[in-house]
Sequence to fold (453 residues):
Amino acid sequence: MFGEEAYIAPPSVSISENEYRLRQQTLFKQLNENDLLIIVCNPESARSGDVEYPYRNNSDMLYLCGWKDPSSVLIASNSNGGWKTVLFVQPRNILMEIWHGRRPGIEGAEEFWPIDEAHSIDELQERLAAMLDECTRVLHRTGSNAVVDSMVNSAFESKSRARQLLGKGPISIEDPSGRIAEMRLRKSPTEIELMRHASKVSSRAHIETMRSAKPGVGEWQLQAIIEGCFMWNGQSWAYPSIVGYGENATILHYHANNAVCDGDGIVLIDAGSEYEGYAADITRSWPISGEFTEPQKAIYQVVLDAQKAAIAACVVGAAYNEPHFTARRVLAEGLIKLGIIEESLDEALADDGELNKWYMHNTGHWIGLDVHDVGIYRPNGEPRVLEAGMVITVEPGLYFGAWRDDVEVSEKWAGIGIRIEDDVLVTAEGPDVLTADCPKEIGDLEALIGCAD
Ligand SMILES: [Mn+2]
Fold:
């Protein structure tokens, strides 16, 4: 189905036990001696009947110990001056394993995962109660696992009473995710290699899709090629693929993917794969006919210019939203030049300016273990300053949906939706575009579209 060049060998590196331990220690150093840290897994989720959604553990669990299986809880406590990590997991169970697959179990967790001790999840309540007894602060993010939440809450309530009586038990709960987010925001060299691989595979998948595209193809068939190429490389999508043709390209998070590409419109594909938990996020927009019409080309060039200028603004020391302001300015200038905006540049860029009609989203977001990765954008109310090791997407767009009744779209531009998105690593040497293998120049796209025929 796919040619040899569609398979990209994975990198030889993975997150080492040392790196996991270093992450844990970096977090523990910020905590107090009598803190108890709890990281819960995401719950499994029913799709319908006996069928469940494919399971993915939450990114904080993946970040701290790489544990991927459901029904697990990571707890860290400090006793006798040292931090100890305890992972509660599903124990081995031959019947469950015959039906659902092999489990590492308690022994496997202790032998192969970067933790100190493992126990059966069935022992969580009893052991957690004992640990809560000894701590003064619980670090736990409520809201992602109702079972563990109620366990912590009830232990907390009874221990609070015990504290009044005995002077023991926790006195506060704090969400640890902000501290972990601050760490996850800065990617290590190994994390960057994993992200680079996801980016390369995703780039290749976009190329394969362009190569096979021709008028009459269904959006879902383009989706099949791009996601098929992810799978060909042993990966899956990092988020549901957006494949929108024509007017559908003007819907930001379009997901029906059920229309036929039957004219000379633009196909907008926003799709990226995930490798070892790390996401790629790429958008490309190109004409199904293989050739941009003049209006399409004009709009595309404005977005491309804005995207390149915004990428150039992803430098150490710049505010995180500098790429956004840069993109907005270039977009507004372009639209004024094309006569689409009749305001001055300052007017167009104002809160109530005309640019907002055609460009209504932000220019980027952090990316990492989550496609919209964690990390506060405005710590203490001030814009975050970019540092080497941060990875941010750059994705300006322009959308002229003629279906909208809140704007007048002239016939010339009707139905054009363009977004161009790359993932950019900030380095001391300047922006490093992880998704640079994916073409975006007009000539390169025109040469590629439908060339597999
Ligand atoms: Mn994105």
